[in-house]
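Hi team,

Below is the intake form for Putative CoA-binding protein from Thermomonospora cellulosilytica. Please confirm the fields before the structure is written into the shared record.

FORM ID: S-0412
PROTEIN: Putative CoA-binding protein
ORGANISM: Thermomonospora cellulosilytica
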Amino acid sequence: MNERYADPDVITRLLDESRTWAFVGLADHPHKTVYDQARRLQARGKRIIPVHPDRRPVLGEEAYGSLAEIPEDVRIDVVGVYRRSEFAGGVIDEAIARGAGAVWLPLDVIDEAAAERALAAGLDVVMDRCPAIEWSLRH
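The structure came back. Fields below:
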């Protein structure tokens, strides 16, 4: 995998300066990695937006069925793509269409073609990295 998807400056900026993270795949399942990651970022002052087809609130936040359903006036700084690699490209395309600032694909979620589309559209891309691990390395 290309190391440009793990640029330390981009990672630090996203962790420090972002305010709103939309977590695609976040449902009210505390045993799931996405739940833990969202909970950790929420505890660090980030607004989290659950995106899951069941549209049930998670961690006290209203959920949406897709990125397109999130109100237009909500700025999405980072889209966490917590779907299997074969579905990541579709989520990244939605993030591009929605005007998100960045996409973050966690460990073992890799789609370089979609990452290239995101970069070409002006989004920052972090891929195959864990927000909690990266936070602990930088703070």
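SUMMARY LINE: The first strand starts at residue 20 and ends at 24.

Thanks, M.
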